[in-house]
Structures are given as C-alpha cells and as structure tokens.
Amino acid sequence: MNFGFTASQQQMRDAVRYFAENVVASFIPQMEAGEFPSALVRKMAEQQLMGITIPKTYGGTGRDFISYIIAIHELSKVSAAAGVILSVHTSVGTTPILSFGTEAQKQAYIPKLASGEWLGAFCLTEPSSGSDAGSLKTTARRDGNSYILNGSKLFITNGGAANTYIVFARAEGGITAFIAQKSTPGLMIGKDEKKMGLHGSKTVFITFEDMCIPLANRIGEEGDGFKIAMANLDGGRIGIAAQALGIADAAYQYAQAHHPNIQLADMAVSVEAARLLVYQAAFLRSAGQQCGKEASMAKLFASKAAVAAATECVRQIGRNGAAERYFRDAKVTEIYEGTSEIQRIVISKHLAKGMGI
C-alpha cells in the first residue's frame, strides 16, 4: 500500500479543505437550527463534489475512490452533516444505478446526479427491518409494464430534499431495486426526525401508497435487490468511516488547540490508526480489490474513535464551541451503514473463511 497521496489527490484534499473551512463553516448556524442546506449543496455541486467518482462520460469528474473519501473526510472535519449528505448521495444514491443500471437508466439519471442538479437517496431500512435488511416488508406487485409499491421506509437520509430514491421492495421473484422520483404519485414524505446530531441533514419517514413504478425503472432483475444493496455497502461503510474520521480528527485538533495535555496522546493514536484503516480500505476499493473485511474494520474502529475523541473533547473543554457538536454528531456513526455489532459479525465471517489478518 502506498501511504502517500498522488498530486491529484493532494489537490483534491487542499481544495476541499479550503472549501470546507471557508464556505461550509458559514452554513453551520443555519444547519444547527435544523434547516437543510440547499444552497450549500448547490455550492458543493459548483465545486464538482457531487460526481467525484462518476465517469466523465456521464458528467462526473472521473476521479478515484480515494479522492472521494478525502472529500468526505475533509468536509466532515468541519460539518459531519455535509459529509453524510454527500456520502449518501454518492455511495448509495448514485452508485447502484452506475453499477447495475441499464444504459438508458444511466443516461437518464447519472448526469443530473453527477452535476448536483439532482440529489440522491437510498430507501432500505424499514420500521421492522434494520440490520436484517432481508426481512423487509415493502411490496412490489407486477402490473403489466409497471410495479405497484406499498410499504414504508424510515431514517432515510436526504429524504424530502432528494430527487431520486433507490427503493428496495419484495416482488414475486424476491427483493428488487427500483428508481423512484420524488414527483412519483404515491411517494409521500413524512416527518423529519428530530435528532441529537447531524442537524441540517434530513432523516425522514417515507410511505409508498400504490406508487406506480414503470418496468424501465427496475434496476437489474427481480430478486437482484439484496445483491445490489450489499454490493454498495462496502463503499458506503468506507464513506461513513471517513465521516467518523473527520469528526475524530476535528475533536482532537480542537482539544489540542484549547487544552493541550498528555492525555491527548491516546486520542492522537486512535485518530492516526483510524486514518490508516480508512485509507487502506479506500485504497483497496479504488484498486478494484475485495475490501469487505477492511471496510468493516475501518467503520468499526473509526466510529469508536470518533465517539471516544468527542467524549474526551467535551470532558476536557466542556460544551464550549464545536465540542458539543462533535459529541452529538459522533454517536450515529456507530449505528448507520451497519451497526458496530454488524461490523463485528462481518469481520468474524471473513476471519472464519481464512481471510484473516
């Protein structure tokens, strides 16, 4: 593994760091008041951040996965909410279409998502199925050249603000993936959850009531949905690991600036270890190599480091300034994109298969 960034990756880091510190930071009061930062998303689009890994043929910048992780890391050092908006849009809101969609679907949706004209969301979690995604109850009944969807999803990041939704439902042939647009009749956006952290990021309940989806909007074949969902989880987990790394990094730097002491040594070690795990996983995915174990290791450790760093930051400094926000934002990184318990299960399965350290 090469521990250094290429010139292009260094350029990305410097550009996103400057943008985060000088533009994203100015939106934090608005976001902390609970307002979704639509204007910030437009500015992120102007910086070509909404299609970092999308090929240029579909309107993206064609950069590698490491560059995308650099962007999430740097954004999350300033605003974890901005980091997750981009992460969900890219990793699970756009990539399923790019990886499994037809050429017609790619031409219809990817350019708008890559340019930031449209925002993407991912609808998998339900009131009765979170970690056990295979038990989802939303149904998709075939009706000629269409499907009729009924059911509900919850904790949908970007919901309400997003223009497109990757929806998973149970059809006759098994769990199946669909592309739904916000304007589709029968798609109803519910309440925006009141959260401890990630203020400004929308997390909503969505109901499908006889929502009619054309056959042309099915991704892959009937029964491919679970495979499609799982295929994108590695990238999503590395993205959230990068978000957690950003929070841990920011908490450490804030504590170091305001109250330097010997106890920060442990925090520094954890942040650096998280950095290595996150970028190792990103390196493997960027190289097209298997990274399921490494993605889960990065997610497990970086989220734990974020919670520990933010907790220690508050313990030493109090609720002053950004310390409380780091504390409130950190906890969810141990929960979404697979809980820490799920990451341990994934890692254990890899080890049992002889793919150990």
TrEMBL record:
Keyword Flavoprotein: yes
Residues covered by the Acyl-CoA dehydrogenase/oxidase C-terminal domain: 223-351
UniProt KW keywords: FAD, Flavoprotein, Oxidoreductase
Entries under SUPFAM superfamilies matching the protein: Acyl-CoA dehydrogenase C-terminal domain-like (SSF47203), Acyl-CoA dehydrogenase NM domain-like (SSF56645)
Record has Oxidoreductase as a keyword: yes
Catalytic reaction equation(s): a 2,3-saturated acyl-CoA + A = a 2,3-dehydroacyl-CoA + AH2
Cofactor(s) needed by this chain: FAD
GO molecular function: acyl-CoA dehydrogenase activity; flavin adenine dinucleotide binding
Annotated ranges, domain Acyl-CoA dehydrogenase/oxidase N-terminal: 6-117
Residue stretches making up the Acyl-CoA oxidase/dehydrogenase middle domain: 121-211
Family statement: Belongs to the acyl-CoA dehydrogenase family.
Protein name per UniProt: Acyl-CoA dehydrogenase
Organism of this sequence: Domibacillus iocasae
